[in-house]
């Protein structure tokens, strides 16, 4: 078959009508199918891909799809053709919120929502830095390695605690108040230094990935030949953040409207825990704190209460997600390993955190030390591996939404000129 032509998507006969592949703008698109990419999509949850016969029902039923070059029909075609480069630079892949209106209306049970979720997983691997970590996070065989890394690093931090403290100029706090730390071998300053260092590495890796991703999206054909911004960057960012906070994209869904509830719990629980963590990290230098900064907090401390409420919110959201996936999979979509890793990571972080708190107040030694160490391992895995896990959706989807807002690419609008 000549390059630049391909059998009609969804065809099963070799003598089907042959048609040229085109971009949304109508330009001829040379076709060089990436067969390994197609296989990767099927492994990631896009096994229904070949059921698509391009009827367009998915795009017609999606409440988030823009009028100009709507999705996910074109994404299904590009995936069938193995056009990895087109999909890796396609912002519409990220404007999809996997509500599954398209999947439940598909006459062939092709599940476009699952296919786009698989494309997003491949996109994270494509842009991640370093890329091998993204491959590890998506493969069950590497779970022992991914957990052994923080365990080993924490062990080394404990072993060389005194040397690190002397090098950084830290000394044990002096005072009359007796404070029971979660783990004497891992004092507050060492935890802050440890997670601060590796957190900065994770941020740097995330920035590299997002910069690569942004450059890719800007080259997409869906913007048209001469796209012109309709909003400023800050105005677009503010609008997108508001949409995320109120979850209006999820509440637009008809098939699985309840998903907005579980995501709402997880989002605001995570934000609460992040706020408390920021307060703890900046405690010794925070100008808003008057008097001595004492950590761990007492049970009735406002910050401890906020952390507990946030933890309960995340736990509730995780349990709802697990329930939806186990009993309403036909609505929630096929859950891949990539999905389950995030859900269980959040669950284990919260459960071990509560267990640490209870054992700390009961003064159970060494139980509380062991659980706290395990909790820190899971926290490391959740936060430091964020640029490579499904949690990276926060970065990639937000970036795509900001660009779409800036260039007016949203339901009811278009930008091609």
Task: Please provide a written account of the structure.
The model is unreliable at 1-20 and 174-179 (pLDDT under 50). 59% of the residues lie in helices and 1% in strands. The chain is mostly helical and 417 residues long. It starts with a strand and ends in an 11-residue tail after the last helix. The protein has 2 domains: 5-127, Fumarate Reductase Iron-sulfur Protein, Chain B, domain 2, CATH 1.10.1060; 131-222 and 250-385, Fumarate Reductase Cytochrome B subunit, CATH 1.20.950. The chain is built from 19 helices and 2 strands. It has a two-stranded antiparallel sheet with strand order 1-2.
Short description:
The chain has 417 residues and is mostly helical. It contains 19 helices and 2 strands.
Largest sheet: 2 strands, antiparallel
Number of helices: 19
Rg computed from alpha carbons, rounded to a whole number of angstroms? 24 Å
**What's the overall average pLDDT, rounded?**
83
Report how far the terminal alpha carbons are from each other: 33 Å
Approximate strand percentage: under 5%
Principal-axes shape call: elongated
- Helical percentage: 55-70%
Based on the structure given, which CATH architecture of the largest domain is correct? Up-down Bundle
Number of domains: 2
In order across it, which strands form the biggest sheet? 1-2
CATH fold category name of the largest domain: Fumarate Reductase Cytochrome B subunit
Question: How would you spell out the order of helices and strands?
Answer: EEHHHHHHHHHHHHHHHHHHH
**Structural class designation:** mainly alpha
Total strands: 2
List segments where confidence is low: pLDDT < 50 over at least 5 consecutive residues.
1-20, 174-179
Please identify the top-level CATH class of the largest domain: Mainly Alpha
